[in-house]
Amino acid sequence: MTNRIKKTQVINAKPLVEHKISKEERDQLTETLLTAPATALANGEVVAFPTETVYGLGANINCPEAVDEIFSIKGRPNDNPLIVHVGTKEAIKPLVQSFPEVAEVLVEELMPGPLTLVLPRSDIVPDNVTAGLDTVGIRMPNHPVTRQLLILADVPVAAPSANLSGKPSPTLAEHVVHDLQGKVNFIVDGGPCQVGVESTVLDLSSGPPLILRPGGVTASSILRCLENHHIQFPQRDWQIRLLHSGSGYSVADHEVPKSPGMKYRHYAPDGIVKIIEGNDRSECITNILKFINESNIKDNFYGIFANQEFIDEVKARLPGETNLIQYSYGPVPDIRKATHELFAGLRFLDEHSAKWIFVETFPDQGIGTAYMNRLLKASGDTSNRTE
Questions:
Q1: Is 297 buried (19+), middle (13-18) or exposed (0-12) by CB count in 10 A?
Q2: CB hemisphere CA count around 233 (13 angstroms)
Q3: Taking all residues of the chain, what is their mean pLDDT, rounded to a whole number?
Q4: Which residue from 201, 299, 368, 370 has the fewest beta carbons nearer than 10 Å?
């Protein structure tokens, strides 16, 4: 492993996503665009690539030095396990000791997609991928570029998000270039990520399923899938525990987490994230103005991530204010659009030197659970709220 500066090549694979082309043209483009990064992955190089959730930074799990390089590039603690990505369903079983019926059902119904399953690992998964745990998280991304890249590489690929550790995850190739230029040889540009937050991590390693990290697949979707296939567990109220799992789940400092996102501060910009509280829009705005006045931050640049209606009302109550930097995810409140744009918004406000960043909240349910999880992690403390 070396820390020398690399000549980063950005491969524009967006034509494989954006254009309606024939199968022959797609096959030719796939070979032309993806052979080099796929070969690099197979040969032990670290490659950044898109998924439907966020961009990933991947290495062949059979190359220990390449896996170690992921931690070095990101500045990631080595007790934070990596998720293994595969291109086909058939590639999952060799990585695990057992493959219960619940896993069969979820793989068949919800993969490829933004879902990671935690299962007892087989001997071929090395310790530096799992942080020494006897379990491994596995997922099959639902992104046409990534699927083809993984199939061409034909190796299991360990991959966290392709950003510097602790910073907002990248949802555009430009974000990856900003963080990792000169640190990797290949960045594959597959366009904007569709979901915008990382995969749901579901623990199937002991007892009924529990969400360790909420993401693009909701608890209700998982439960509905299991009930449709008549999957049951002997534990009382396992359905209720599944539905309420994942929110605020974390581990102690001395523990090794089964999933990324459970222990360390994540997704945080340089600016201080303040969570907007209030029972309605008027109260939320009042709380923002109160904080600005009482904290004497008017002389600093501060930002807001919210819908345009909300932002317009804030600006109307700050006549003549010039230090407000805005990032609107859409015209009106919309949890899916907010989730999709959250990391991009935090990065934008950071790049524009916002010392304080006010962020809109949503109910902690459905995809809102993933959104609020990332927001609380980005704020660094659940008490970091304007109320």
A1: middle
A2: 19
A3: 90
A4: 299
Query: Residue 157: which residues within 8 A CB-CB, separation 6 or more?
Result: 41, 58, 59, 60, 61, 84, 85, 86, 150
DSSP-assigned beta bridge partners for residue 358: 274, 304
- How long a stretch of residues is the chain? 387
CA distance 260 to 250: 10
Which residue in the block uniquely carries the two structure tokens 């009382």?
236
In 3D, which of 319, 43, 57 has the Cα closest to residue 188? 57
The residue type of 30 is T
| pTM for the predicted model, two decimal places | 0.92
The CA-atom distances, in angstroms, between 49 and each of 6, 56, 241, 316 are 17, 5, 34, 42
Element (H, E) at 200: strand 200-203
State how far the Cα of 20 lies from the Cα of 308, in Å rounded to an integer.
33
Query: Which amino acid is located at 230 in the chain?
Result: H
**Which domains does the chain possess?**
9-243 (3.90.870.10), 272-386 (3.40.50.11030)
Q: Cβ contacts of residue 146 below 8 Å, gap of 6+? A: 49, 50, 51, 56, 85, 87, 190
What is the sign of the dihedral through the CA atoms of 163, 216, 201 and 50? negative
Containing 231, the helix (H) or strand (E) segment is none
Please give the average per-residue pLDDT across 244-260, as a whole number. 60
Decide: helix, strand or coil at residue 147. helix
CA 229: distance to chain centroid?
28
At 42, list the tokens: 């197979």
Please tell me which of 121-125, 252-256, 318-322 the model is most confident about, judged by mean pLDDT: 121-125
Taking residue 98's Cβ as centre, other Cβ atoms within 10 Å add up to: 11
What stretch of H or E contains 368?
helix 367-379
